[in-house]
Amino acid sequence: MFKKILVPLDGSELAASILPQVEDLAKSQQAAVVLLTVGNFSSMAAMIEAAPRFVEETMEALKKTALEKMEPIAAAIKAKGIPVEFEYREGMPAQEILICAAEKGCDLIAMATHGRGEVAWVLGSVAEKVVTHATVPVLLMRVIEPQPLETKRELFGGP
Question: In the chain, pLDDT over 90 holds for what percent of residues?
């Protein structure tokens, strides 16, 4: 059914939490995996004119770090017999995810998203944009990050 699965990763544990499910799906479908990291430098736009060399060096360092983080992830997936490649792009994350999916011929985009508080199905803005504009199926895994209880009152309902 699926032949190539795109997995956007931002370096966070949350984003990587979907990898076991992707590996299982890729094995069962005999699909390849494309890992993607997007460097989003929009917040550095004002600095580009003021200090272009600094920005260029910073962008290169961030790219190198991103690729170094992705190499062991790709190696672990490959060790399980799953074809894997990785991409690094610069730009707006949602847009680059959609472009990469089209260019690489991915027929599924798989990503983790936050579950926040009482709002049960809040999507991150990147996930929301991908779901809204994707031309292929998008598998979202909602990850709920545990929140620490701060008082005895919360634990026991008393004073």
Answer: 55
CB 88 within 8 A of CB 67: yes
**CA 75, 136, 43: angle at the middle one, nearest 5?**
70
Joined tokens for residue 65: 């770090």
Dump pLDDT digits (tens) for 2-58.
999 999 998 889 899 999 999 999 999 999 999 999 987 665 555 666 677 777 787
Helix (H, G, I), strand (E, B) or coil at 115: strand
Query: Domain 4-156 adopts which CATH fold?
Result: Rossmann fold (3.40.50)
Domain ranges of the chain: 4-156
Measure the CA–CA gap between 92 and 11, rounded to whole angstroms: 16
- The helix-helix angle for 19-29 and 52-79 (nearest 10°) equals 50
What is the Cα 115 distance to its own chain's centre? 15
